[in-house]
Amino acid sequence: MANKEFPLIFERSRDGRTSYNLPALDVPETDLNAELGDTFVRKAPAELPEVSELEVMRHYTGLSNRNYGVDSGFYPLGSCTMKYNPKINEDVARMPGFSHVHPYQEPNQVQGAMEMLYDLQASLREITGMYDVSLQSAAGAQGEWTALLMIRAFHHANGDQKRDKVIVPDSAHGTNPASATLAGFDVISVKTNENGLVDIEDLKSVVGDDTAVLMLTNPNTLGLFETEILEIAEIVHGAGGKLYYDGANLNAIMGYARPGDMGFDAVHLNLHKTFTGPHGGGGPGSGPVGVSEELAPFLPKPVLMKKDEEYVFEYDRPQSIGRIKPYYGNFGINLRAYTYIRTMGPVGLKKVSEYAVLNANYMKAKLQDHYDLPYTQHCKHEFVLSGRSQKKLGVRTMDIAKRLLDFGFHPPTVYFPLNVEEAIMIEPTETESKETLDEFIDTMIQIADEAKNNPEIVQEAPHTTVLKRLDETTAARKPVLRYIKK
Ligand SMILES: *Cc1c(COP(=O)(O)O)cnc(C)c1O
Predict the structure, then answer these.
(1) How far apart (Å, rounded) are the C-alpha atoms in residues 246 and 266?
(2) CB 3.0-4.6 Å disulfide test: which of 28, 242, 298, 363 passes with 153?
(3) Is 427 within 8 Å of 412 (Cβ atoms)?
(4) How far is the centre of ligand 1, averaged over its atoms, from the C-alpha of 392 (Å)?
(5) What is the per-residue pLDDT across 309-348, written as a single tens digit (0 to 9) for each?
(6) Residue 286 Cβ contacting ligand 1 at under 6 Å
(7) Which residues does UniProt assign to the signal peptide (predicted)?
(8) Could you tell me if the CB of 177 is within 6 A of ligand 1?
(9) What is the pLDDT of residue 2?
(10) What separation in angstroms does the CA of 238 have from each of 69, 199, 212, 369, 385?
(11) Mean per-residue pLDDT, 350-371
């Protein structure tokens, strides 16, 4: 059905149609078989679509019109910080001095680009309160994994080989246990108490001399600030473990609280969330890692340093965990984050936190009479509702999410965190106007009313989109990523 309405570029293809006009070959043709050997030379021509330039334009413009992004509407996807990405970031990323540099250029030719990275590291050190920062990792999850390798290297360097457990709260982002598993640790879950915070008694019972690290998000995934953080740090450090801060979402605390001051030994940031790198659709991202002085010798190499007046990449780091990404990180995303930080300044970043928290609390206050609110205290940049009452009427959280599409909104995060039944996790961000927040609130209230009075309209949503309900499980488990000509 979708194909009939909107053919694939391959289906638009007609033999011999082209979008280019190249001059005739004026050098001798190479005999590829002689140069490369039979095995490497393609037998049949590559099956590429043959289309005119106009058809290419219409095809991709048509696709982009079907897309939904922050530039087209409200996108309150909790734990994702879909804030507006200022266009000045794009201007700067396109400056030839940045966009034309090559990672294999000699450092003496790219001192300006290195200075930008160095200054970004310095800003992130200040924002997080950490001793040193590496910009290498390309995503939050990779930052987590990088820091876990460093923490293990630290324990091993201290002759502490037996610390093979990573403690993770049951509300944690899925990447935390996943990174820990990939890094070769066993994952131990710690419970959330009735206030939505780490259960201190449960924590005490799982911490021990096999604890490598506790991974924590603060504010946590319920949008709540872990007020006992200093005690938590004491418990974990007391047992010889380290503390890891999942700083993917720093939107609530920038300029107000710093992981370094809370006692954390390592942290990652998502520059593609808090620091306005465009995201969604899988990248590119940037997940820098900040560490304490103790962990600094283990940072990925090369380490960007300033020596005398020169910026250098230092490779002589005997305790380094090595390189975790080719080149020096996702330069373009780091540059956009640098531009954002410089545009906002320290006062601006503080204001970001203030508005992000204000907007979330405003929406929470307006919606809490219409949906269940499992944790009632003030939230930080996001909050979690439950569709428990609607479920009793036969309307699931998934239906509510689909119904929002009819009103032109991207749905919030649903069914996450896992410890809230029928979870609806809303993160408005600081960049939205009060009018937009009010429109979304009114729509959510209307859907709650529909669930009571006209449940079918919600259960059968969406009614207005090009495609209706998709089989998301099959799409995730058996993705069809290649065009195969029938
Ligand atoms: C987004 C997010 C991550 C993962 O970041 P990626 O860049 O998608 O790998 C980790 N933790 C939290 C809390 C997040 O919100």
Answers:
(1) 9
(2) 298
(3) yes
(4) 32
(5) 999 999 999 999 999 999 989 999 999 999 999 999 999 9
(6) no
(7) none
(8) no
(9) 44
(10) 46, 17, 12, 43, 36
(11) 98
Which residues in 178-216 are b (16+ Cβ under 10 Å) and which e? Answer: ebbeebebebbebebeeebbbbeebbeebbeebbbbbbb
Q: How many whole angstroms from 147 Cα to the centroid of ligand 1? A: 14
Å from CA of 457 to ligand 1 middle: 34
Nearest to 146 by CA among 181, 186, 179, 187: 179
How does residue 20 score in pLDDT terms, banded at 50, 70 and 90? confident
> Measured between alpha carbons, how far is 224 from 379 in angstroms, rounded to an integer?
5
Rounded to the nearest integer, the mean pLDDT of the chain is 94
Spatial CA neighbour of 266 closest among 238, 235, 239, 287: 287
Contact 260, 294 (CB under 8 A): no
Q: Determine the distance separating the centroid of ligand 1 and the alpha carbon of 453, expressed in angstroms.
A: 38
Atom 5, ligand 1: which residue's CA is nearest?
140
Give 282's pLDDT tier (boundaries 50, 70, 90): low
DSSP-derived secondary structure for 251-297:
TTTTTT--TTTTT-SEEEE-TTTTT----SSS------EEE-TTTGG
> What is the number of other CB atoms lying within 10 angstroms of the CB of residue 119?
14
In angstroms, what is the span from residue 52 Cα to ligand 1's centroid?
40
CA distance 1 to 5: 7
Average pLDDT value for residue range 408-437: 96
Peptide bond into 417 cis (omega under 30): yes
The domains of the chain are located at 1-67, 87-343, 352-475
Closest CA to 328 of 343, 318, 316, 315: 315
Query: What are 71's two structure tokens?
Result: 């530039």
Q: Which fold has domain 87-343?
A: Aspartate Aminotransferase; domain 2 (3.40.640)
Answer for the pair 89, 437: CB distance below 8 angstroms, yes or no.
no
CA dihedral 358, 361, 362, 365 (to 10 degrees): -160
**pLDDT of 257 strictly over 80:** yes
Question: What pLDDT band is residue 44 in, cutting at 50, 70 and 90?
Answer: confident
Of 152, 344, 371, give the one whose Cα is nearest residue 250. Answer: 344
For residue 372, the model assigns a pLDDT of 98
Residue 411 φ then ψ, to 5°: -65, 160
Residue 368 pLDDT class (50, 70, 90 cuts):
very high
Higher pLDDT, 39 or 25: 25
Token reading at 354: 């203030």
- Which residue from 136, 175, 289, 418 has its CB within 8 A of the most atoms of ligand 1, so it is best to mutate? 175
